[in-house]
C-alpha cells in the first residue's frame, strides 16, 4: 500500500468536503427531523461525479478508484449519514454490479442516469423473512415461453425504495437449485405490477427513505436479466463485498464527526475549575476514540486498495471488506457512545448533533451484513471451515 494520496484522489475529497460543508451539513438537522428525502443535494453530488465515483466517464461517472470513493464517502458521512447511505447504494450496490455483470446497453441505460444524479437506484435482496439468510428468499420470477419472466413477491428494507427509478432485484428462478437458482434483474419502477409500501420510520439515517416493495405479475424482458440466469446469488455477494467498503467509510465519517465535536467540547467545557479534557478519565476516552478511528480508517483504505487490485485482475477482497466493515461499524458505535457520554446532558439533547451521530451509527452494524455475519465471513475465510 502507498499511504500517500494522489492529486486526483485529494481533488475528489476536496469536492466532497466542499459540498458536504456548504450544502449537506447546514440541512442535515432539517432532513433528520422531517425525514424529507434530500433530492436536490443528491443531484448536486451527481453533477460533481460523486454518485458514480468508480464509474468510467463513458457511462457518466468520475472514473476514479476505490480509494477516492472512501475519501469522498467519509466527507459526506461526516456531514450527514443519511446522504452517504443514498450515495453508497448508488455507487456500491447499484452501479458496481451493473458495471461488472451488465451488458453495454444496460450500462448506458441504467448506470449513466444514476451516476449523473438524474435518477436514484436501489438494491433489492432482503425479504421480510430472509435477512442474513439471503438464500431463503421467496420472491419468484417464473420464466415464460417467450423468454420473459413474471415476478411476484415482496422485498423489505429497500434503501431509496420510495424514490428509486431503477432497482437491481434478486428473485428465485429455480427453487430446486438453491443459491444457484437465483437470478438478478433490472427493474423499472414506473411499470405496471410494481408497488411501494409505506416509508419506514427509522431510528437513524432518517432522510434515507426505506420501504417495502411488492411485485404483482411484473413482467421482465429477457434483456433485463443482469448477468446470466442463475448467477444472482454470486452477483449479490460480489456486490456486497464492495458495499461493505462503502458502509465502513460511512461509519468512519460518523465517528470522525463525533470525535471532532468531542475534542472541541472537552477544551471548552469546564468543571471543578479546569477543562474537562484535562481529567485523566476523559483523556483515556479520547485516546481510545482516536486509536479506534485510525484503525478503522487504515483497514478501510486497505480494503479499498485490495478492491482496486481485484478490479485489475488481483485476488478477491471479501475478507478485507468484512474486516473493515466490522471494525469501522463497531468503532463508530463505540466512539459515538463515548462522545455522548462526555457531552453529558448536552449530548442527549437535540440542540447538538451528537445524539444524531449516535442514532446513525447503529445501522452500520446491521445493514449490508450484520457484525455477526462479518465475523462468520472472516472466520470461515481464515479457517476454511463452513
Give a structural overview.
With 386 residues, the chain is α+β, with helices and mostly antiparallel strands. The chain folds into 3 domains: 113 residues, Butyryl-Coa Dehydrogenase, subunit A, domain 1, CATH 1.10.540.10; 108 residues, Butyryl-CoA Dehydrogenase, subunit A, domain 2 (Beta Barrel), CATH 2.40.110.10; 151 residues, Butyryl-CoA Dehydrogenase, subunit A, domain 3 (Up-down Bundle), CATH 1.20.140.10. The strands form 3 sheets. It has a 4-stranded mixed beta sheet with strand order 1-4-5-8. Strands 2-3-7-6 form a 4-stranded antiparallel beta sheet, covered by helices on one side. A hairpin with a 5-residue loop joins strand 2 and strand 3. Helix 6 packs antiparallel against helix 10, helix 7 runs antiparallel to helix 8 and helix 8 packs antiparallel against helix 10.
CATH superfamily of the largest domain: Butyryl-CoA Dehydrogenase, subunit A, domain 3
Query: What is the percentage of strand-forming residues?
Result: 5-15%
What is the end-to-end distance? 31 Å
Task: Point out poorly predicted stretches.
Answer: none
- CATH topology description of the largest domain: Butyryl-CoA Dehydrogenase, subunit A, domain 3
Helix fraction, binned, reads: 40-55%
Tell me the domain tally. Answer: 3
* Largest sheet features: 4 strands, mixed
Q: Tally of extended strands?
A: 10
Helix and strand string, N-terminal first?
HHHHHEEEEEEEEHEEHHHHH
**Dominant shape:** globular
User: So, CATH architecture of the largest domain?
Assistant: Up-down Bundle
Continuous helix count: 11
> What's the pLDDT, averaged over the residues?
96
Q: What is the structural class? A: alpha+beta
Task: Report the CATH C-level class of the largest domain.
Answer: Mainly Alpha
Describe the strand arrangement of the main beta sheet, using strand numbers: 1-4-5-8
Rg: 21 Å
Domain Acyl-CoA dehydrogenase/oxidase C-terminal: 230-381
Domain Acyl-CoA dehydrogenase/oxidase N-terminal: 6-117
Catalytic activity: 3-sulfinopropanoyl-CoA + H2O = propanoyl-CoA + sulfite + H(+)
Cofactor: FAD
